[in-house]
């Protein structure tokens, strides 16, 4: 059993805070790190190394360990929506094929796919909420529906946003890979409370923020890009991801 973690947070006795799914309380150590970060800009003469890459690379390496990746597979972003948009920008979307997603999905994992389906002539298939709550069986049925167009992209999540129902990515991804589909995962609801191993799952892209179960700040997110998806274009081009006009190696090009 996990012992009490109360001493790690600035939560007064008598306060029971439960909204970790949307606005988690920061641990004292995270608050201290944030304050140190502010000081590097408030008193920059005291922090000559603040603009070096060491802190970013440390965060990249920690993220890689968390999901079974390598640091070269990780891009640092400001949100999950940026991660999903990066994936969408770099995927082939053949006319007439399907984009598959689940009903009542979080907007970051829905809006861009809905728009692209309309713009590029793809069939948008939104798997309806199953009466029995089985969010694994329902997508499996949709994937193998007789006569349906091939799936170009499947937008998935390990835990459904609206009700936290478990989605067995292992089962879905095996079938999707056999069908030749590209797989984009939003792991926001799951990472930090259940193990996620990209070596096992083999998604094309997987995005997540720090503000929920990872007990971090808003405006910080990460994108895993599989090795064969690391030659695309970022959402914007800057001195970090394209220094001297040369794209950064690996997923860093998406920073």
From TrEMBL:
Cited Gene3D superfamilies: Aspartate Aminotransferase, domain 1, Type I PLP-dependent aspartate aminotransferase-like (Major domain)
Signal peptide bounds: none
Keyword tRNA processing: no
Every Aminotransferase class V domain range: 46-228
Pfam families reported in the protein's UniProt record: Aminotran_5
Record region (Disordered): 233-255
Record keywords, A-Z: Aminotransferase, Pyridoxal phosphate, Transferase
InterPro entries per the UniProt record, alphabetical: Aminotrans_V_dom, PyrdxlP-dep_Trfase, PyrdxlP-dep_Trfase_major, PyrdxlP-dep_Trfase_small
PANTHER family, per database record: BLR3095 PROTEIN, CYSTEINE DESULFURASE
Protein known as: Aminotransferase class V-fold PLP-dependent enzyme
